[in-house]
Amino acid sequence: MEGRLIHRRCLARAAMLEATEAQDRARRLAARAQGLVDRAQQAVREGRRLTTCAACGRPLSSGGGLLFDGDDLVHAACWSGVRP
Asked: Dihedral of CA 26/32/36/37: which sign?
């Protein structure tokens, strides 16, 4: 908005809206993170380990990097980057 005239009230309203949207995003991310932590803790309690790629079913130790595809751990080569 540099170099443009803008009403103070409009600027304040835009800043408030941006802050509110950032807070909503942060809440959603925190809830997702807590869900992942809960899922991991449950897996540890049950003695489960993530050993296979959620996309191809091969062992995660078969080489290459690993990424999360949503909540699932996959080989970097199997990562779609697009969630349905």
From this structure: positive
What is the distance between the alpha carbons of residues 72 and 51, in angstroms, rounded to a whole number?
Answer: 11
Mean pLDDT of the chain: 83
User: Is 50 exceeded by the pLDDT of residue 84?
Assistant: no
Q: At 12, list the tokens.
A: 């304040």
pLDDT of residue 83: 47
Alpha helices in the chain (DSSP H): 8-45
Domain boundaries in the chain? Answer: 1-49, 50-84
Is the model's pTM score more than 0.90?
no
DSSP state of 48: -
